[in-house]
Amino acid sequence: MKTDNILIFGSLLFTFLAIFGSRPSSQSSYYTNKAIGDINRKFQQDLALFTESTAHFYEIVEEFRQGKSGKKRMTSAYNNLRRSFKQIEFIVEYLDSEAFNKTLNGAPLPKLEQKVADLTILEPKGLQVIDELMGGDLEEKDRGDLSEIASKLMQDTRKIERYLALRTITDRQFFEAARLAVIRMATLGVTGFDTPGTKQGILDVYTVLSTQQVYFELYEPELKQVGKTECLQRFKQVVQIGMKRAKDEDFDTFNRLKFTKEVVNPLYALIKEIHLGLDYETIDEVSRFPLAFNYMSDHIFEKDFLNKFYFVSIPEDEHFDSIEALGKLLFYDPVLSKNNDMACATCHSPDKAFTDGLVTSKSNSGKDLKRNAQTLNYAGYSSAFFHDLGTKRLEDQFEHVVLSKDEFNSSYAEILKKLMGSKTYTTLFKNAFPNQVETIASNNVDYALAAYVMKLSSFDNPVDLYFQGLKTSLPIEVERGYNLFTGKANCATCHFTPLYSGLVPPLFTETEAEVLGVPNFKTEPWVLDDDLGRLGNGVTQEVAYFYEAAFKTPTIRNIDITAPYMHNGVFESLEEVMDFYNKGGGVGLGIKLDHQTLSSDPLNLTETEVADIITFMKHLTDKTIFEAPSSLPKDFEQPFLNTRNLVK
Amino acid sequence: MKRILLSITFLISALFVRAQNEFPSQLVEVDWEATEVVIPPSPFQFQVLFIGGEDMVQTGVNEEVPAKQWHDFIGFTPLSAEDCVLDENAIGWVSVNHEMILSDDKIGDGGGMTTFLLGRQPSNDELYIISQELSDGRSGDFFNVDFSAVGETGMNCGGINSNVDGRIWTAEEWFRSDNESIFNGGNGVRDTTDYTIKYTEFEMANFQTIPKYKNFNWMVEIDPRTAKAVRKQYNWGRQPFEGGTVAEDNKTVYMGADATPGFFTKFVADVEGDFTEGTTYVYKHDAAGDPWVEIDNSDFSKMLEFKAEAVAVNATMFNRLEWVTTNKNNGKIYMTETGRDNPSDSWEDEAAEGGVYAPHHIQRAMDQGATGPDDENYWDYYGRVLEYDPATGEVTIYLEGGPYFEESPALGDYPSKHLSNPDGLNMLYVNVAGEDKTYMLINEDLNGTSYGRTPLEYPDDRMCEMYILDMETENPTVDDIIRLTQTPRGAEITGACATKDGKSVLVNSQHPDGANPFPYNNSLTFAITGFDDSGAIETLSAPDFQDAPADSFMIYPNPTERIVYFNKVTDIALYDTSGKRVKVYRNVKSIDITGLTTGVYLLKNKEGDAKKLIVK
């Protein structure tokens, strides 16, 4: 016993000496002698190569434009460009996502210039625009455009290289970037988002995986020192499986479900395992600002992959559960409305995934409101709210309902006055918000309701369970449906995995809206719905023609129980929705609309394919059922309030 | 026996851990030994004064509503001998802009301002808000400024705070070109009927009927004492005004316009303090003789179309001028040119029509290998502070933003030294222990996060910072600016305005990230007090470790509340008392420990040297 203690003490002492005693020989050795030194060198070399290949590509495109070289030569130069791009993409995006999206690989859509005192439209440029052109027929005008965009890419790349050439990254940053590469490949690569014209995202997978392998092999000596080379072996095995799939399959045959399960998820977990195995610091030890996804999660379909606290101002602390419990009561309590007859649950009923089953919701006097009630499940993971993205945080969207004459028709002062009359409520508020002077402050009501909404994400539909390893297989129709949804049918290029919503990967910080050309009625003659959408959302900085009829891309989780569909509830069934998309949206139906963001080309989905997609979507219903509270506080001073009924 | 084996395994693995990583995630607790330098706690005090959406503004007799958000400019109007205020600790009125267009039945549609009276406790220098009863019967703490008499207001961004007597003008910045954009689907200015200008001092403007949107984008004088707008300066031109300053002569006003191109404007009053009559000029650096070219302000159409007039006289074009201020010691004018990433498309048409580029843009473009400021490859990511010297008529770069890292700042000093997209600008005059000091206050408003505008170490950082610069510094660079404070995440830091006594600087945190905890998720006005304390500002700047040997490791200050400086660039890990690694910083010369719980930590650098650090 005593010997044990001495030994333990001795080893502790030795550890201490080992840690404190020796000093690395040279100050700069850290960044040169270890893997990270080679990583930085490799990145700089690859970045220089990419810069060269942009110049080469531009040269060939110019030759092509002048008729001096053929399409074959240009295609080969383009493939070369993509290959060299995919080798540096993950680090560049990690280091400067803004410049990356603005210049190298942003969506091929016009945007408004941010943070300037006017409304300036920035025309799209970068590789996705090039890919669209490369996938087209390259007529005369396209050739000029291609040359211009290729020239810009070359210039912009030079600027980025000039800035990044002076930077070094740390191990932590490398591992984070590598995980972003995996997310990007799984969500934007294999779905065709990245390659809207040529659809060669599967070819990119091969480059992405082989690049990761080369980088991770640099860690072999370090892993050997800690006796963890076995992690690297597993890493390489998974990479090989993925590379084989990428080689053997093409865009239409690629089994994305299997790829996600067998390659994406294990790889994502292994990067963390290697990172932690080497004992390098993680983001949590470096930044006070949490990211939108939790670094500690193992894969993208895990329950806490996304960080729900990223999107709200409610702190993640010991009071959250009390705030949420209070929110749950308020959500079903009509005391929040002027006449004590309407609650949040009036339009967001738990048994319909928090929708109301109506075409558009009903006002407090029974008339039709403008839009369809959205599901609140997973609603918290969003950077903007309402169909028109007019409100930027979850806590704020409730205010609109309170003040609206057609909805609660009330005010915060009125609500607080009523709530103060109930001992139960005042106690609940006091417990939930112990650090404030007032018993109830108006933002407490918002926080409580927001906290309840944050809770409504269970990530336990059959597809989730499959990815989480809690279910061994899925019906073949569901597998086919998933593969179509994330492939040929182009659904996942807007309804991004894992939420199947407009929350854009790989950073998951921004929610998108799309222009689909949704008609006002589902009959001919097709007429565009007159709702202005995002253009009419009242945000001064979001006034642009391309926001007209743009609506938030909602999650399709629980879609089977949230009919009818679209912002105006025009479609009753998933069959109708699929038919609309299959025909190319509004423009495909013949509606005149210049800025539809959905491709107007028909998807050419067969009946079976449509049926498979629908079957897949019907497997997105959560297992967890959220229940309303059994009763409401009935101890209000004003007796008539105690006769109100719980709304379900 | 099993336990012996276990500890041997531990011993071996510990050896490997050392071999692998200089910062193992678990450390054994030891008696941390370190020399400590103890300094008195920071003398600065911090107070939140005015929270948007939360504090109530008095809109009528016994009528109040939550204040608007988007706090921008702050003006301070010191109490004068004529003012009759009961509270003897009153120091002056504060006016805060709301940079927005929002309909509000009570406050008024459009933007607006809020005013309040500030007092200072003599015992501890704390600030407090004094309740007032205004002549129109309103009483309370905060008052919205009534703009109904001047045809409403909107997007109240920067403004002018006269050094001479504290008069206040608000700038209606976001330039509008149709009624639809101010109406904003009924969410903005709802009354968009034509506006007829009446009963103003400006004869050329009276009884002119203009579309409603053209009654916006003027400089508007307000009276913080009555919380009422006084007049729109129809004689200064209709421009996307951001800032301005009144020179010591109380006749000359300099103004900047936030646009690309943005023009530099001057107004010279005929009579001191009367800004209703005088001459209006636009700056043209290459004009023969006087660089100021008159734009006839007796012609209202010229005032309405000021930009076209400026281009027609070939005026000098800048890339988004923001705030303008004066150094009263030497009469020089300073202004922020916040920059725009790729300005070529924004000013090439005006250049073709005769506008001339400011010489520093031509030079910068040349340095970048671009053909000129109209080359699409010309970039202006970081912006700068400009200086105008009335004696020479020249505008030159006073402080160039950065980093691009090729020269300045040194890699190890970044991000504590960097300046991107300066916007708010003001002067602080303060007497510190008998010595008169002048400082420049510089506020960032980032146009983006790319190209190193935010520290790369923190992937989700969108911080705007406020810097302070000692005006005695000759040829200042970003190395000379000292980081004073930063606003909560996502916010623009703006407004920086000193109280007359120099003790406090009032600052606005505008449009912060919704994810910050209350009240930092709202726009708010806060105060930092203590600038008159001797040594206060020095505590903000990096200490001089002088000839510390390269192999030594020195840290300062300790204990600390926020920043710890080192005598060299190194990697740092912090361990808590249980031996757990809680923070790692790479390649730094200082660290900011904001957010750590108070207590004792072990600080260890990559060379293996350890120090005990106390976080207060």
Q: Can you walk through the features of this model?
A:
The complex is a heterodimer of chains A (648) and B (616). In chain A, 47% of the residues lie in helices and 2% in strands. Chain A has helices at residues 2-21, 29-33, 35-65, 71-95, 97-104, 127-134, 140-164, 171-189, 201-217, 220-225, 229-248, 256-277, 320-331, 344-347, 394-403, 412-419, 423-432, 442-454, 462-467, 476-485, 574-582, 585-589, 607-618; strands at 111-112, 121-122, 513-515, 550-552. In chain A, a hairpin with an 8-residue loop joins strand 1 (111-112) and strand 2. In chain A, helix 3 packs antiparallel against helix 7 (140-164) and helix 4 packs across helix 9. The radius of gyration of chain A is 27 Å and the shape is globular. The termini of chain A are far apart. Residues 1-29 of chain A have low confidence and may be disordered. Chain B has 616 residues and is mainly beta. Chain B folds into 2 domains: 20-42 and 549-615, Immunoglobulin-like, CATH 2.60.40; 45-341 and 380-535, Neuraminidase (6 Propeller). Chain B is 9% helix and 38% strand. Chain B contains 6 helices and 39 strands. The chains are: A mainly alpha (648), B mainly beta (616). The interface between A and B is large, with 78 and 91 residues.
Strand order of the largest sheet of chain A: 1-2
Structural class, from helix and strand content of chain B? mainly beta
Taking the alpha carbons of the first and last residues of chain A, their distance comes to 64 Å
Helix tally of chain B equals 6
Mean of residue pLDDT values of chain B: 88
**What's the story with the biggest beta sheet of chain A?**
2 strands, antiparallel
Number of domains of chain B: 2
Share of helix of chain A, binned: 40-55%
- Give the chain pair forming the largest contact, with residue counts: A-B, 78 and 91 residues
The assigned structural class of chain A equals: mainly alpha
Q: Helicity range of the residues of chain B?
A: under 10%
Shape of chain A: globular
Query: What pattern of helices and strands is seen along the backbone of chain A?
Result: HHHHHEEHHHHHHHHHHHHHHHEEHHH
Largest sheet of chain B: 7 strands, mixed
Q: How many angstroms separate the termini of chain B?
A: 46 Å
CATH superfamily of the largest domain in chain B: TolB, C-terminal domain
Continuous helix count of chain A: 23
The proportion of strand residues of chain B reads 35-45%
CATH architecture verdict of the largest domain in chain B = 6 Propeller
Give the total of domains of chain A. Answer: 4
